[in-house]
Design a protein that fits this description.
two-stranded antiparallel sheet; 4 helices; 2 strands
C-alpha cells in the first residue's frame, strides 16, 4: 500500500472534516531513525504497517480512533474521523 494513494485520492475529498479540529503529524519510519520510530509506532498502535492512521487526544495521548491501515476509501476515512470526533467529545465531557 502506498501513502500517496490516500494523499492523492482520499484526503482531498475530506478537506472539511480534516480542517475541523485535526492536526496532522507524520511519523516516517524509513529514515535514519527508522528502527527507533518503528518501535514507537508499534508501542502506540500495536502495528508497524504503513500507511497507518491514528487519532490521538492531544491532552491525554489516548487513541481515539485507529489504527486504520492501508489504502482506504473516502467513506471509510470519513467514518474513521467521525468516530474520532465522537470519542473526543466523550473524553472532554467525561473529564469535566
Amino acid at each position: 500500500m502506498n501513502c500517496r494513494q490516500n494523499e492523492e485520492k482520499v484526503f482531498p475529498s475530506l478537506f472539511e472534516e480534516l480542517d475541523g479540529g485535526f492536526v496532522e503529524a507524520r511519523l516516517h519510519t524509513d529514515g535514519d531513525r527508522g528502527e527507533e520510530l518503528s518501535q514507537f509506532q508499534e508501542q502506540l498502535a500495536r502495528s508497524i504497517a504503513t500507511p497507518l492512521y491514528l487519532v490521538l487526544d492531544p491532552d491525554t495521548e489516548r487513541v481515539l480512533a485507529g489504527p486504520l491501515g492501508g489504502t482506504v476509501s473516502v467513506s471509510g476515512f470519513r467514518e474513521f474521523l467521525a468516530k474520532a470526533k465522537r470519542a473526543g467529545e466523550h473524553v472532554k465531557v467525561g473529564s469535566r
